[in-house]
Structure formats: structure tokens, C-alpha cells
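Ticket #4471: complex job returned nothing on first submit. Input attached below:
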Amino acid sequence: MALLEIKNLHAEIDGKEILRGINLTINAGEVHAIMGPNGSGKSTLCHVLGGRDGYEVTQGTITFDGHDLLEMETEERAVAGMLLGFQHPVEIPGVKNIYLLKESLNAKREAQGLDEVDTFTFMKQVRELVASMDMDDAFLHRGVNAGFSGGEKKRNEILQMLLLEPKLALLDETDSGLDIDALKVVSEGINRMRGEERGIILVTHYQRLLNYVEPDFVHVLYQGKIIKSGDKSLAHRLEAEGYQEILEEAS
Amino acid sequence: MTETQELEQLVKREYKYGFTTDIEQEIIPPGLDEDVVRMISAKKHEPEFMLEWRLSAFRHWQTMKEPEWAHVHYPKIDYQALSYYAAPKSQEELDADAPESLDDVDPKLLETYEKLGIPLHERAVLAGVKGANVAVDAVFDSVSVTTTFKGKLAEAGVIFCSFSEAVENHPELIKKYLGTVVPQGDNYFAALNSAVFSDGSFVYVPKGVKCPMELSTYFRINAKNTGQFERTLIIAEEGASVSYLEGCTAPQRDENQLHAAVVELVALDDAEIKYSTVQNWYPGDEEGKGGIYNFVTKRGECRGDRAKITWTQVEAGSAITWKYPSCILKGDDSVGEFYSVAVGNNYQQIDSGTKMIHLGKRTRSTIVSKGISAGRAENAYRGLVHIGKTATHARNFTQCDSLLIGDRCGAHTFPYIEAKNASAQVEHEATTSKVSDDQMYYLRSRGLSEEDAMNMVVSGFCKDVFNELPMEFAVEAQALLAVSLEGSVG
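Support reply: We reran it on our side without changes. The output follows.
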């Protein structure tokens, strides 16, 4: 059984059709990159998968780990094992980062019928993960994303992923706004998550991230459809030739 | 559903304290004249000076006009239609004194406080965890039912009793301090209170004593068509310190009820008073029917050098709140602080803030106000920072933040600054933000339910104020806020 199966997905925002028939299958153990020019529908696809209000699915189905995803609320998708890494993580002043991490983990544990995580184990685990992301402990006691630099916000998204160990990680432009050192740390984080039991979708503009996290499959999204799929060499071609050539070839 | 409707569903609240205690009450007939003032004084067996004080306040009140400058709207109050004194009959028979032991207290009253979660049995309090190390004065309509731990406090020299008892047993202290911070004619509601006040709490902490327990008063309005006019006076002598908390609830009724309290604090040299309020009077129903009119005058005076007064308030209830806990910073190097969370939902109206009056040298004040509006509530911050001519090198910092939930509510800020000394430093920061669907979406995508997500955003917003509450009450305030924002998710 596929981990995620999208069939003929059409979706619109404010009556305007953005996704026009997407088909995509992702199995556990695979890393997929979805690339495409601005306005091709990449972020819309992420938010439809995340269950954001205002994104209306007009046709098609999405199955996630055996569930009808479109019937699930955002939080149900999360506790069922989907994690959306945001392009622009929002600031939540006054709420400590560590508090959100703990609440998120406990929400997931509760859904699995487990007790709340004990504080000692939790702190130990979080401290290790923070160190692995080349971050300072002080960061845990700051407000969620409040006053974080662009790079810190993205590291924080990856930190959450490492802690929550999702079945499917959907990372929306995680590489944007990162300097080269931060890009390396973030990529290492993603690579650590690669595994037989997990699927990863990298949504990105650029080839850059894919130099560090090698995808098994690359898809080109254009005008709401996947117009071409291939292996990692497709990403290299995009980098070398630009979108135009591939778009022409596909049409 | 639109985003606004969804958010509003989330903040729909259920008022948990809306029950009525079925108890035989003595309520005097509605109406207000000098005879009523005399009657109240007589019921309390007050000495002559107290009656004279009430009468002069009453005469002053008659010459005054109800203020109209606040950003609140309500039909004119008919002061002759209200009753000014209500007491449970069982208490009445016990004379003016509060009962000596809990065995004398009507079980129905004890039951009421139990239902409200207020511990009145000292032994139970000492044995149990809840309410440990907190002494309580329980005021039911116009009278104090009981005050716990009086004995233990007396050992430390601290006087903690109902106001009526203080008038009887410590008239010299009352004479010396009553009305010295909030004069009788200070404002319309203070004058009315001075004429007809019924009960409240009295605290006296002598020189050098650090009060060994948290003190608290729990106010309960039960009777119909009555006003509650409580009076609280707290005195901390040189080097003394005390932390005091008040809580308030009322039954759910369709009529509006008036609550006009006066609180006076006096802090002498090096004394410190921390006064915290968790106000949860019945706010009215979803259509704005019923609820308490909370018209309150609270003021503290740092009368001595290096004195410190801190007001912390969590205002969640009442149909209308009109309240400006203030500090007069008379002593040199004295400090005034005001930390406030005011939550308005449905048709609640709030006009609240503070006044910091700097008179002494190097006086400092801090104002942190957090206003939360939901439904169709109107929430105004009104604050005055006054730096007098004599207040050299005075400093003030004001931070005033508003959070809007939905798009049918309002937030307003009316800051007034009067600086008459050029060496003053006054800072004012203000922000208005909305609980955004981005924040809700982000938190939900981490597995939190809508309710938990909303509570997390709101308590983050209030964090600076909750940090100022005594530990035990911070937990209570968090819970109150969660209840206020509790509702059925669609």
C-alpha cells in the first residue's frame, strides 16, 4: 500500500482553479522532490495536503496511510503522522518553543494511546536534537518563531520533524532563505529522517537543496499539473537548462 | 463557516458560577435616602463617627453626576430601584460580628463556597493541598460570612478581618486611614460606596512584618436587585509586606446588577503591597442580557519612601467594567506597577486601565496591559501617567497590547501623559494584533485541537501578566481564561 496516493486532484481558492488533476504516489522509504516555477501550484498542493481552510478540493482523492485524507481535520492529519514544514513559519509570541514541542508530541502520543511523555526523557531527547541542529538551548525558551531569523525558523521546523518522527514529511521551500552553513545543517537533519518507514516530499524552486538531499524522484509541476517526472537527473537538467525547455518538451 | 464565525464559536463560554443559593435573606426595601444610610450603619452597630462619615458622603453624592466619559454604553441606572443591603437571615441573627466558629455558619453558605471551590475549613485547608497557606475572608452579598486563619495571622501581628469588625475593634485605624487615599467625593461611584458600603476586608500589617500567608477575599453576589458595595482597606506599615487576592462571582440573572467597590491601599516606608484580582462576575448572556456593572475605584498610595504597590488583575467577567487601579507615588524612590489582562466576549464592555501619579523623586512605574476582545465586545485601555513638578527623574514604561478574536469586536487605547518635570522619562508602546488563521493553522498542523491552539495563542499573549500573579492564582487565572475561551468546536 502506498503511503500517499493522490488521484486526479483538482483544487481551487476563491473559485479559481489552481490544481488541475494531480496524480502522485509516494511509498514509504522514498524521497520525492516537487519543483516548478512560481505560481505553478506548489504551495497550494502543500496546503491542500495540510488541510488549510479556504482550499477547496473539487475533484479527486487523497489517501494517506489507508485514511481518506480529505475527511480529516488538520490536527487529525498531524497526529496520524503527517508533518508540514512551513515556508513561512508564523510567530506565536509568549509561547515557549519547548512548550509547543511538548504539546505537539503529547498530542501525537495521546492519539496513539500512549501516556504523556515524562519530562526527563523529553528534555534529554530535545537537548540532543537541538545540539544536532547546531542550535543553542536558550532557543527552547524563546517564543515560538518570535524574532527568529529566517534560518532559525527553518531549523526549528526541522527540529519539530526530528522530534515528531512523522510518517510523511512535507517540506515546503525549507531551503529558501538559508545560507550555505544553515542549508547543510538542515539537509543533514532531513537525511537523518530518511528511512524505510518514512516518506519525504521536498517542495523547492531550486536544485541547491537536492545536492545535499538526493531525491529518488523528481516531479515538475506546472499550471497545476505534474507535467514531467523522472529521477534526480531531471533536477540537474532543470538547473542547467531552466524550466522553459522542459515545459516546451512536455507540451 | 467563515473564519470569524469559527473563532467566535471557539470563545463561546459557559459561566460556571451562575447558580443561586436558596437561602432566606433579609433585604431592605429598594430606595436610597439618609434613612437608608442610617439603617445600614445601625445594622452594623457602627460608632457615631462612621455614621457621620457615611452621611457626609451621601450628601456629597447627591450633588454629583454619573460620569459619562467612559467608552461604555448602558441604560440609565435608577438608584432608587436598587436595594442597598442584603444579608442571609442566619447571619443577621448572629449579630454584627462574624461568627466565631464555622459551626455557627449556615451550612448552605458553606456549601456555596465549597461549590465555588473556596476553602473555608482551616483544618481541611491545612491538610489538603488546595488553598494551602491562603487565608480567606468570604463576603456574601452585604456581609462577611467568615474569615479564616485569623488566629494564626494575629500571632504575627497581622489583622485580617471583615471591614465591619475592623470598625468595631480597631476604630482608631479606620479613623486614621479611611478615605485618605480615595476621598469620599473622589468620584460618583466612590461617593455612593462611601455612603452605603456594607462589608469588605481589612488588613493591617505592622512595622517590619512580612505577612506569613497569602490573604484573599472572595466576593459573592447572590441576592436579586441589590447592589454590592464593598470596601477594602489595606495598610502596610514601615518595612511590612503583604500579598492579597480577591475573587468574585455572581449568579446568572437577566437583570443587570451594580457592584461599586472602593479599595484603598496605604504603603509606608519600604512597605510592599501586592494586590491581585481575578474578577469573574457574571458577564451576561450571549445576547448581552444581564450581567454585573462593575464600577470600581481602586487606588494605592506609596506614602513612604521606597514603598511599592503592585496591582495585577485578570478581568474576565462583568457586563461593564469601569476600573482604574491606580498608584500615587508620593514617597521618594517608590514604585507602582500595574499588570492587567482584560477579556471581553459577546457584548461585554470594558473601560479599564490605571493612573500612575508621580510626586516623589525617582519614582518609577510600569504598566503592562493586555486586552483581549472577542464576539462584539468593546475593550478600552485608559491610562494616565502624571509626572508632577516635584518628581525629578521619574520614569514610566507603558506597554499596551490588544488582541482581537474575530472581526466584530473593538479595541481602543486612550493614553494620557502629563509631564511637568523635564527630567522625566516616559515610554509608551502599543500593539494591536489578531489571532490569525496562520497561527491557528500552524498549531493545528502540529496536532493541537482548535481549542488548545486558541488557548495557547491567548495565554502566550497574557504571559507577562500571569507571571506577576502569585503562583497558586496564576494557575487559577490560566484555567479561568481557558474556561472563558471554552466552547463547542463545530
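Chain B has 13 helices and 23 strands. Closing as resolved unless it happens again.
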